[in-house]
Write a structure and sequence with these properties.
about 230 residues, alpha+beta, six-stranded antiparallel sheet, 10 helices, 6 strands, globular
């Protein structure tokens, strides 16, 4: 995943890191800080689908666009692209967005996407040859985040990112729009508060209703170790 964001236009001083524990301070200490975004990968369950549909019911479809938009959200219309959408959410918002290199592939995508409404943005991603080329290059190096569009996949990616206003956002292209989960202030997404408002809240919900085996993994976006 780090290779892909470098292909898109993030500096090599930024990268993704495995998060081996959400509770063990010693293991969390191995993750470079500040953690700007967290990608949660999990199997789609009936519990999750019911919660998603219930929380989204009654909400209008997100219709934001333009430079005044607090958070950049991409609607997912491409099958099996949740990993790529999650990665784009991580690097298109918060501190990482300010590190996008000028005239890079991602800089060009964002310049074109920000003025557009969600459905138009989704079409832009679908038609983007530069995004496809970057993804193919990363896949050739074993760094792909998306399977074949026709493959049966039960894993899903959700991004938790700290926005410019210090608020924690849950970004999922399958939802009706971005979801604000709380205020982080000076803390990052791997702080106790960040985890409680984000990933741990999700896991507790699954566990409380007997959602079965809690298989999941996490990667954090932060400073590179090199």
């Amino acid at each position: 995943m780090s290779h892909l964001i470098h292909e898109l236009g993030l500096p090599k001083t930024l990268g993704f890191h495995d998060v081996y524990s959400l509770d063990d301070p010693e293991l969390l200490a191995f993750v470079p800080r500040p953690a700007m975004a967290l990608l949660l990968v999990f199997p789609v369950t009936l519990t999750y689908e019911k919660f998603r549909q219930t929380e989204d019911s009654g909400k209008p479809d997100y219709d934001g666009s333009g430079e005044g938009e607090e958070i950049v959200w991409f609607k997912q219309t491409i099958r099996n692209a949740c990993g790529l959408i999650g990665l784009l959410h991580a690097v298109s918002n918060g501190e990482a967005r300010g590190m996008v290199q000028k005239d890079s592939k991602l800089d060009d995508i964002l310049k074109k996407a920000i003025p557009l409404k969600p459905l138009e943005r989704a079409e832009l991603l679908y038609e983007s040859r530069s995004l496809e080329a970057a993804h193919q290059n990363a896949a050739a190096k074993g760094d792909s985040v998306a399977p074949d569009a026709n493959e049966a996949v039960d894993l899903h990616y959700v991004c938790f990112v700290k926005g410019e206003g210090g608020r924690l956002w849950e970004l999922d292209g399958r939802r009706k729009g971005p979801i604000m989960r709380g205020q982080l202030g000076e803390e990052d997404v791997l702080s106790d508060r960040g985890l409680d408002l984000g990933v741990k809240s999700f896991l507790k919900r699954e566990q409380s209703v007997g959602g079965g085996e809690l298989r999941f993994s996490c990667v954090a976006l932060g400073p590179s170790l090199d």
